[in-house]
């Protein structure tokens, strides 16, 4: 069977030789796609987004990531992330969405989906909410019966958590299908389109060192996404 | 249909999290796009066959050293002059990605271009060898970031593209030692270092310098970012508010640079030739 081509959005970085603008991707994302039977590729040029969308069968928006060869360049990197990367990702998402092909967002990618669908975020909710959801803390979630995520992993399961922002206003036609114990949105699914987002990191919940160890293996989640990409 | 060009990127570990990642400088993709190709980066060396079937040509980009075991040499752990450990960086997984893709594209008869390390990879694939460090082994200075002249060989592709003499940038500490079978050195620096390789019959060539910086601010950014320490500034509250509003809906901060209207650097002879190899089959 022909393997589906999966576009993966990148994170901003500066390269080592020139400390010039670049794009990066943590291998955990591409490895999860490969293991599930997809062919991961990274798009590089914003003016070619229509070409990328035409050739691809699915889109993965990953979590936030970055790399700088010198710590002094953190501000340069932040401006890249919140300008060039944010704009590229918006254009890519909207172009891909028009095709009706499947989209999966992880962590910051899940938040991006919510924003592109008309929602917004609460920034640094930990201070006002009083609960830590960052730096990998493990917690459990409860799912909505009959949803994609409930069909995959059941009503309760443990996840990792690495986010300082949370979904505030929910985007149009999105449904929250998993909540943390305190009511923080953890999974979103679109009512009519194959668009899914997880606030946690399923790409870290597989392989020999799953995080969290007590969580479900995430290979079925990525296989489910790849199967949807094959159908469309 | 525009030709699809597969690029390879750096293969590293984040020093803080130790997560492995792939990285590519933005100007490579832009140079390919300016010459008329669609640029994508390969992400998994286990998919060499799929990538080779999918793409029309391969661009091996710059990066860290090829492991000397790949060309039957011993890793130079210590500087024989000073006795101190050498600081060189290599990536065995990137070697696999680059070399396997190079071999697969050769087998498929599809064009290959190498830049910097990429030219050295092509040489190694054809059985050539490398000098592990120019100052130590050759006792010459070939400093990074300093442009130098090159002379091209009469009748070569390089002479056709660039003329008999030109000036190129320079960002490498290794060099071609013996030239691989079927390859010809067609440009040299005044210190004798080989600056370009062309295959006698196949659509395969490489350059030691970085033509992708043509029409970009790569070299200026390098100068700035290697020296400037960003000042600690008390942020303007209005700007903080503006950034927060943009972040809340994950949109680009107003007024900051994006690629929405980026002008691609057209007219780069090296990249135009590379794309011509796909579209016209020209040699």
Summarize the structure.
Chain A has seven helices and 13 strands. By secondary structure, chain A is of the alpha/beta class.
What does this structure look like?
The complex is a heterodimer of chains A (232) and B (283). With 232 residues, chain A is of the alpha/beta class. Helices cover 32% and strands 25% of the residues of chain A. In chain A, the strands form three sheets. In chain A, strands 4-1-5-6-13-12-11-8-9 form a nine-stranded mixed sheet, with helices on both faces. In chain A, strands 2-3 form a two-stranded antiparallel ribbon. A two-stranded antiparallel sheet of chain A has the order 7-10. In chain A, helix 3 links the parallel strand 5 (58-61) and strand 6 (103-106). The longest helix of chain A is centred in the middle third of the chain and has 26 residues, at 74-99. The model of chain A has no long low-confidence stretch (mean pLDDT 95). With 283 residues, chain B is α/β, with parallel strands linked by helices. In chain B, 30% of the residues lie in helices and 20% in strands. The longest helix of chain B is centred in the middle third of the chain and has 16 residues, at 92-107. The two termini of chain B are 21 Å apart. At the A-B interface, strand 3, helix 1, strand 4, helix 2 and helix 3 of A face strand 3, helix 1, strand 4, helix 2 and helix 7 of B.
H and E order of chain A: EEEHEHEHEHEHEHEEEEEH
Strand content of chain A: 15-25%
| Major sheet characteristics of chain B | 9 strands, mixed
What is the molecular shape of chain A?
A: globular
Ends distance of chain A: 14 Å
Provide a count of the helices of chain A.
Answer: 7
Determine Rg of chain B (CA atoms, Å). Answer: 20 Å
Q: Give unreliable regions of chain A as ranges.
A: none
Most extensive interface: A-B, 64 and 65 residues
Strand order in space, largest sheet of chain B:
4-1-5-6-13-12-11-8-9
Number of strands of chain B: 13
How much of the polypeptide of chain B forms β-strand, as a percent range?
15-25%
Alpha plus pi helix count of chain B: 9
Main-sheet strand order of chain A equals: 4-1-5-6-13-12-11-8-9
In terms of quaternary structure, the protein is heterodimer
Helix residue percentage of chain A:
25-40%
